[in-house]
Write a structure and sequence with these properties.
Helices cover 39% and strands 19% of the residues. The chain is α/β, with parallel strands linked by helices. The chain folds into 2 domains: 134 residues, 3-Layer(aba) Sandwich (Rossmann fold); 138 residues, 3-Layer(aba) Sandwich (Rossmann fold). The protein has a 6-stranded mixed beta sheet with strand order 2-1-3-5-6-4, with helices on both faces. Strands 9-8-7-10-11-12 form a 6-stranded parallel beta sheet, sandwiched between helices. Helix 5 packs across helix 9, helix 6 packs parallel to helix 7 and helix 9 packs across helix 10. The structure holds NADP nicotinamide-adenine-dinucleotide phosphate. NADP nicotinamide-adenine-dinucleotide phosphate binds next to helix 5, helix 6 and helix 9. NADP nicotinamide-adenine-dinucleotide phosphate (NAP) binds next to helix 5, helix 6 and helix 9.
Length: 287
Amino acid sequence: MHQVQRNFYAGVMGFPVAHSWSPRIFARLSQILEFPLHYRGIEVQPKDWDEALPVIQRLRLFDGWNVTLPYKERFYDWVDELSPEAKAVGAVNLVRLAEDGRSWGHNTDVFGILKTLEEQNLDVGRGLAVIYGAGGAALSVGYVLGLQGASEVWFVNRTLTRAQAQCKRLRRLFPHTQFVAAEVAPVRFRSPPRLYVNATPLGMKGFPSRSPMRTRAEGGALAFDLVYAPESTPFLRSAERQGLRRVGGLDMLLWQALASWEIWVGEIPKIQKIKKQLRQEIVTQIR
Ligand code: NAP
């Protein structure tokens, strides 16, 4: 793996970016790993996109950046090369500018989801899973479940057409998994779900404080909330009352930061230990 030896300039690009936890996480990582990675918010208003991007690229103000809303799809079209995950989910959330000036688009959502499920010892295998939401993050969850060979994956979303579009995309990639779109959760699934995922912003600071889960869940399953702030959400509290195992979105967020670092700078030694340390420090801040 490559290892960058010089100062590295990165950031998070989106609009707005003031709420992002990434600058805090990367500042801390830079201290822990004793490497000069300089990271900042790069707020680009949609009206400025056409002018801002060529300037940023030509002046090489940054060596790479994370991408947040509303630009993940735009960068998909903008970069020169795509990683297999970015190509599969049709969205770029990390850009790396190579030495030769070419831009690479990656998607670290997939890695963050895979690592979180791995830490929870959850491989859906031939089982059934339910995803609430049908945006970019939900699609990445569906992609991971397709990779795991799930037999059935439900997308439950308030806009049915969006859930249908995600199912159509995933069916082409994973013909052996049944992808089902629904507007409201069906009362009875064919077999007890092994995984319930909240991929909507419900429960996040500034959004309605309720859970998207309407049906009674089956005990023993895992409830995974992609929301990471606050740590305890209505979805996770409802899962707790129903005896489910639970994990919030912080682990996914941290694994994505670590993956970004490795793509930009190089391998992180003792990555599990670093992740544990970061988690302990950050979790107290998001409570
Ligand atoms: P997105 O593309 O905007 O999709 C949002 C989804 O949530 C859509 O399906 C939308 O439904 C649904 N939704 C929004 N508001 C709702 C409401 N009031 N009631 C019911 N459904 C609602 O967003 P995304 O990028 O997929 O992100 C989804 C969530 O995952 C966010 O909370 C984000 O912070 C979180 N996330 C976390 C991580 C992490 O590292 N932990 C990474 C990525 C994303 P419609 O289709 O009907 O609009």
